[in-house]
C-alpha cells in the first residue's frame, strides 16, 4: 500500500525482552495476559474489562502485589510503569493483578433497602429461577490473541487465524485491505458506514520471516461490538483448527457430533455445512489429499519389500495414462504364520469410503483361539471377475508353497464364483448360509408377509444345519411346505448342496457356516476405509503389527495344552460326556448310549452324530469313548487348536517401517494419477445397504387383528373374521 504517493516504509523493530505475565483475577476466575512496556495502562484496563464482560456502567479498580506490598494501586500510566520496575527489582516473571468492582450497575437483578445494602436475589430463588454461573469456554482466550504493537506471529497464516478468532471473541467483523504473505492490513468492516477507526498493520521481518504488528488501533467507535453465538467469520477454516485433534482421534466423528461438541466446548453455534467441511479439511490436513496418496504407493511398495522380507506387494498402473489400477499386498509375517492357522480362508469384498471409493478385497484366516487372522488385501475399483482373478492368482502363489488344502468360504459376491473356479478349481468352497437365507428372503418380495418370511428363514437354517441326509430330507420337506415348492426348488437347484449343507460336505469345515470372520475384519478396518489409500494401507499394517505383537505376548502367558477358548470348550464337552455309558465293540470302536445310541470310531475321529467330523473337535460321545479307552483326550484333538501352533502363527512379526528418507527416495518422485471415478449423485454413503433378508424387524402384536407382524392397528389391512 502507498500513502501520499510514497511507499510505506517499515519502521525498525525493537527486540523486546521476555514479556511479564500477569494473572488477572476476578471472582475466583482468572486468565493469563502477557505484558510488556510497549503496552499502555488503557490497553490493560480495556482488555480486563472486556475479558470479564463488565457492563458499560461498571467501574473497576486494578491492584497488584509484590513482595513487601500486598496491594499496590494500578490506576495510571505511572503505576503501570512502576509495576515493571517492581517486577524487575524482585526478579518476578508473573504478577497477580486483582480486579475489584467498585461501582456501576449490578449484573443480576438486585433490590436495595434503606441502608443501601445490595442483596443478590439468587440467594432466595429456587434452583430453576437462578441465573446460571458463567461457564468457561476454550474460546475465552481468543480475546487475548491481539494485544499490542510488536506482537510476533510465525507467518501470515498464524496471524490470519488468530485475528479471526480475536474478532469472533470480541464480537466484530473486519476485512483485509491488504492480505499478502509479508504484509497484512485489516480494518473494521464498519469503517465505511460508521467510520470506525479500528485497524491493524503487520509486516514481515527479513531477518526471521516472522510477522510483527507495526500499527494497531484496538478501540472500536462503531456500535454493536458484542460477542454473539453465531459469527460470519466462524467458518470451516477456524473450526478446522479446533477439531483437528478430535478428528485425528476419531475419524468417524459425525457433523452433528462436531456441532454439539463445539457448542459445549467453545460456546458458539456452527452450521452442519461448516462442521462437515471443517471435518473434511482437518482430515486432509492430517492424512493428506486422496489424489496425492496414490503417488506414495511406489515408495510404500519398496519400503514394505525391504523391511518385511517374504512379503508380496503387487502394484499395477495403467502405462498409457499412468493412472492407478489395483494393488495386492500380504506381509511376510502373516504369510509365514498362516501355515500354523486353521486351513480355512474367508474371502469377501467391502467398499472404501474415500472420495475415490473403490473396493477392498480381503482373505482372512482363523487362528486356533477362534480369532481372525488377516492374510492379504487387494484394493481395486470394483468387484469384477477380472479383479477377483487378479486377487486369487496372487493369493494362490502364497498358498501353494505351504502344501495345504484350504477350505474357502464366501458370500458368492459379484464375479467371485467364476474367478474362483478358474484359479482354485477343485478346492473346497463353502457358501455363507446367512447370505443364502437373505437371498432366499428376497424371493418373497411382495409375495408374503413378514411372519411367513421369518418362518421360511428358520426352516432354511434347520436345512443348512442338518447333520445327516435323512435329517436334510425331513427339514427340506418342511421348508417346501412353508415357503412353497415353486420358490424353494428353483432357488436350491442353482446352488450345489455340498457347499451350504453340513450333511453333504465330507471335508473338515471346522464348524464354519457363515462368513462372520470376514465381516469382523471389514468392521475392524472401518475407520481406515475412510482414509486415502496410502494411509489406509499403512494404518491397517500398523493395526496388524500391533495385534500380532499383543497376541504373541499374550500366548507366552498361557499354561494350558489348548488355546483358552478351546480349553474352555473341552471342559464343557467333558462335563456333558459324564452322562453317557460306553460299550466296547472292537479296536477303537464303541457304542455310546444315553437316550439315543451313537457309534464312535476313535481312530477315524468320527461319531454318528457327525459333530466330530463337522467341527474337527471331539463331541461329548467321542470324549466318553476316549476316556473309556484310557487314552489322553488331547491326543485326539486337532493340532491347530494347540497353544504351540498358536505361538508359531505369531512368531514372525510384521516389521516396522520408517519414512524419514521418503523425500530422498527415487520412487518418491513417481507420480501416479488417481483412478477415474465419477462421483455418484447424493451424499456419499459410508454404510452398505442391507438386503431385505438381512433386515430383521421386531415382531409386534397388532391391536386390531391380533396377529404377530410388523404392522400396528393403524396400518392393519388384514380381513377380520366375525
Provide an overview of this structure.
The chain has 722 residues and is α+β, with helices and mostly antiparallel strands. It has a seven-stranded mixed sheet, sandwiched between helices. Strand 18 (359-366) and strand 19 (372-380) form a beta hairpin.
**Which structural class do the helices and strands define?**
alpha+beta
Number of β-strand runs: 27
Largest sheet: 7 strands, mixed
- Gyration radius (Cα, Å) is 37 Å
Span from first to last CA? 92 Å
Parts with pLDDT < 50 across at least 5 consecutive residues: 1-16, 105-118
Large-scale geometry:
elongated
Which features characterize this protein?
elongated, 27 strands, 5-stranded mixed β-sheet, 33% helix, 21 helices, 722 residues, alpha+beta
Chain-wise SSE layout:
Elements: E1 2-3, E2 6-7, E3 20-26, E4 29-35, H1 41-51, E5 59-66, E6 69-74, H2 77-89, E7 94-103, E8 110-112, E9 118-120, E10 152-153, H3 156-170, E11 174-179, E12 183-188, E13 199-204, E14 211-217, H4 236-249, H5 255-266, H6 272-287, H7 290-293, H8 297-307, E15 312-318, E16 323-330, H9 332-338, E17 344-351, E18 359-366, E19 372-380, H10 385-399, E20 407-410, H11 416-423, E21 429-431, H12 433-442, H13 450-464, H14 469-483, H15 485-493, H16 516-524, H17 533-555, H18 564-576, E22 581-586, E23 589-593, E24 597-601, E25 606-607, H19 611-615, H20 620-628, H21 643-649, E26 700-701, E27 708-709
Parallel strand pairs: 3-7, 17-20, 20-21
Antiparallel strand pairs: 1-2, 3-4, 5-6, 5-7, 8-9, 10-14, 11-12, 12-13, 13-14, 15-16, 16-19, 17-18, 18-19, 22-23, 23-24, 24-25, 26-27
Helix pairs in contact: 4-6, 5-6, 10-11, 12-13, 13-14, 14-15
Amino acid at each position: 500500500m502507498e500513502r501520499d504517493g510514497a511507499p510505506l516504509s517499515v519502521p525498525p523493530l525493537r527486540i523486546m525482552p521476555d514479556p511479564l505475565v500477569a494473572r488477572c483475577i476476578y471472582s475466583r476466575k482468572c486468565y493469563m495476559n502477557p505484558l510488556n512496556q510497549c503496552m499502555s495502562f488503557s490497553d490493560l484496563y480495556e482488555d480486563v474489562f472486556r475479558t470479564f464482560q463488565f457492563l458499560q456502567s461498571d467501574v473497576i479498580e486494578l491492584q497488584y502485589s509484590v513482595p513487601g506490598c500486598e496491594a499496590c494501586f494500578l490506576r495510571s500510566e505511572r503505576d503501570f510503569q512502576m509495576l515493571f520496575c517492581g517486577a524487575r527489582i524482585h526478579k518476578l516473571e508473573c504478577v497477580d493483578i486483582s480486579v475489584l468492582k467498585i461501582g456501576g450497575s449490578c449484573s443480576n437483578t438486585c433490590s436495595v433497602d434503606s441502608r443501601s445494602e445490595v442483596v443478590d436475589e439468587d440467594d432466595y430463588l429456587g434452583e430453576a429461577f437462578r441465573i446460571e454461573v458463567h461457564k468457561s469456554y476454550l474460546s475465552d482466550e481468543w480475546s487475548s490473541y491481539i494485544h499490542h504493537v510488536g506482537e510476533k506471529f510465525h507467518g501470515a497464516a498464524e496471524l490470519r487465524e488468530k485475528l479471526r478468532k480475536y474478532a469472533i471473541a470480541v464480537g466484530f467483523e473486519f476485512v483485509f485491505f491488504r492480505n499478502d504473505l509479508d504484509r497484512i492490513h485489516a480494518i473494521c468492516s464498519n469503517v465505511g458506514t460508521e467510520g470506525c477507526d479500528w485497524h491493524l498493520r503487520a509486516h514481515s521481518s527479513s531477518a526471521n520471516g516472522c510477522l510483527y504488528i507495526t500499527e494497531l488501533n484496538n478501540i472500536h467507535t462503531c456500535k454493536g461490538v458484542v460477542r454473539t453465538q453465531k459469527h460470519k467469520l466462524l467458518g470451516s477454516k477456524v473450526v478446522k483448527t479446533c477439531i483437528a485433534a478430535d478428528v485425528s482421534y476419531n475419524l468417524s466423528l459425525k457433523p452433528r457430533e462436531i456441532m454439539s461438541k463445539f457448542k459445549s466446548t467453545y460456546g458458539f453455534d456452527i452450521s452442519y455445512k461448516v462442521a462437515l467441511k471443517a471435518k473434511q479439511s482437518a482430515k486432509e490436513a492430517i492424512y493428506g489429499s486422496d489424489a496425492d496418496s496414490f503417488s506414495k504407493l511406489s515408495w510404500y511398495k519398496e519400503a514394505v519389500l525391504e523391511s518385511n522380507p517374504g512379503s508380496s506387494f503387487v502394484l499395477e498402473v495403467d502405462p498409457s495414462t499412468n493412472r492407478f489400477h489395483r494393488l495386492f499386498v500380504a506381509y511376510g509375517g502373516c504369510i509365514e504364520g498362516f501355515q500354523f492357522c486353521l486351513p480355512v480362508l474367508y474371502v469377501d469384498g467391502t467398499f472404501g469410503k474415500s472420495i475415490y471409493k473403490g473396493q477392498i478385497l480381503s482373505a482372512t484366516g482363523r487362528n486356533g483361539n477362534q480369532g481372525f487372522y488377516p492374510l492379504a488385501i487387494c484394493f481395486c475399483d470394483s468387484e469384477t471377475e477380472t479383479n477377483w482373478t487378479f486377487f486369487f492368482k496372487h493369493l494362490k502363489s502364497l498358498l501353494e508353497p505351504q502344501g495345504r488344502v484350504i477350505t474357502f468360504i464366501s458370500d458368492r459376491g459379484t464375479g467371485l464364483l467364476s474367478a474362483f473356479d478358474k484359479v482354485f478349481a477343485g478346492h473346497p468352497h463353502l457358501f455363507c448360509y446367512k447370505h443364502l437365507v437373505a437371498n432366499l428372503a428376497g424371493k418373497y418380495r411382495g409375495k408374503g408377509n413378514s411372519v411367513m418370511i421369518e418362518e421360511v428363514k428358520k426352516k432354511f437354517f434347520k436345512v443348512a444345519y442338518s447333520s445327516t441326509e435323512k435329517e436334510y430330507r425331513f427339514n427340506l420337506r418342511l421348508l417346501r411346505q412353508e415357503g412353497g415348492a415353486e420358490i424353494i426348488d428353483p432357488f436350491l437347484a442353482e446352488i450345489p448342496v455340498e457347499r451350504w449343507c453340513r450333511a453333504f460336505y465330507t471335508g473338515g469345515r471346522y464348524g464354519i457356516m457363515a462368513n462372520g470372520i470376514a465381516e469382523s475384519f471389514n468392521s475392524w478396518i472401518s475407520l481406515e476405509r475412510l482414509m486415502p489409500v496410502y494411509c489406509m494401507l499403512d494404518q491397517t499394517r500398523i493395526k496388524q503389527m500391533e495385534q500380532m505383537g499383543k497376541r504373541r505376548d499374550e500366548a507366552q502367558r498361557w499354561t494350558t495344552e489348548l488355546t483358552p477358548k478351546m480349553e474352555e470348550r473341552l471342559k464343557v464337552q467333558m462335563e456333558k460326556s459324564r452322562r453317557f455309558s460306553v460299550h466296547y465293540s472292537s479296536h477303537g470302536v464303541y457304542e455310546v448310549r444315553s437316550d439315543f445310541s451313537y457309534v464312535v470310531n476313535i481312530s477315524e475321529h468320527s461319531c454318528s452324530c457327525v459333530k466330530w467330523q463337522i467341527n474337527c473337535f471331539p463331541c461329548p460321545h467321542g470324549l466318553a469313548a476316549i476316556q473309556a479307552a484310557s487314552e489322553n483326550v488331547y491326543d485326539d484333538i486337532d493340532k491347530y487348536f494347540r497353544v504351540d501352533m498358536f505361538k508359531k502363527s505369531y512368531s514372525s512379526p510384521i516389521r516396522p517401517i520408517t519414512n524419514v528418507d521418503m523425500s530422498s527416495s527415487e520412487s518418491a518422485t513417481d507420480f501416479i494419477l488417481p483412478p477415474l471415478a465419477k462421483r455418484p449423485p447424493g451424499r456419499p454413503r459410508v454404510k452398505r445397504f442391507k438386503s431385505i433378508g438381512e433386515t430383521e424387524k421386531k415382531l409386534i402384536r397388532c391391536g386390531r387383528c391380533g396377529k404377530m407382524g410388523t404392522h400396528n392397528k393403524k396400518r392393519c389391512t388384514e380381513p377380520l373374521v366375525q
